[in-house]
Design goal:
By secondary structure, the chain is of the alpha/beta class. The protein contains 9 helices and 5 strands; from the N terminus they run E-H-E-H-H-H-H-E-E-H-H-H-E-H.
Length: 206
């Protein structure tokens, strides 16, 4: 079982750029967002459960999930978001665990936006947080997803706070928009993780 790093950070904090940089270094990375798309690809028990719980109006004409519409529905309703998580998280966790245990590289990364909130931090040895200010997150989120500020703030509020993530972090990458600094930080951590993996530390999960 390889050294496993849990990469997390607030929405639109720059996690994708960090994971891409690790992948360029040959590190195996599995993004939970990609897994979440896979588990609702029809035919899927999770997709059927979502249709039963929230209604078939959240399915597109081809039978796939309308993720944008569902996101707008649940981020304004905590109870609805919890119901969706109860449908999705067990399947996502099972796939992350299976992938992790199949890795043979020195170390691997599980990229999970809600690593702490979902309890999936139990799947990793160390927590790496990509940190950015709330103002920068909102700006990026509005541009990326073409949403208004109110929804962007609701999406941020659904996650752990910046302070909560930093309190749990073993390692932190500051993403202030300086791409070269970010890449240097990733390369430095890569060398550190490779060294720890060679030493065989840590070798077990809590």
């Amino acid at each position: 079982m390889p050294l496993t790093i849990g990469l997390t950070g607030g929405i639109a904090s720059g996690k994708s750029l960090v994971t891409q940089t690790f992948e360029e270094l040959g590190v195996p990375v599995l993004d939970a967002d990609r897994v979440s798309r896979e588990v609702v690809a029809p035919p899927s028990p999770q997709l059927d459960a979502i249709a039963r719980e929230f209604g078939t109006q959240f399915l597109q004409a081809d039978g796939t999930l309308d993720r944008r519409q569902l996101r707008q529905r649940v981020f304004g309703d905590e109870a609805a978001r919890r119901r969706l998580e109860q449908i999705m998280h067990p399947a996502i966790r099972e796939r992350l665990l299976r992938w992790r245990d199949a890795q043979t590289a020195a170390y691997c990364i599980l990229a999970v936006a809600i690593l702490l909130e979902s309890g999936m931090d139990s799947l990793v040895h160390r927590i790496l947080v990509v940190d950015a200010s709330a103002a920068r997150q909102i700006e990026r989120l509005r541009q990326r997803d073409r949403i208004d500020e109110a929804l962007a703030r609701q999406m941020l509020a659904a996650q752990a706070t910046r302070q909560q993530r930093l309190a749990r972090a073993d390692d932190v990458i500051e993403n202030d928009g300086d791409l070269e600094s970010l890449r240097r930080a990733v390369h430095a951590l890569h060398l550190r993780y490779c060294g720890w993996a060679r030493e065989g530390k840590p070798t077990s999960f809590a």
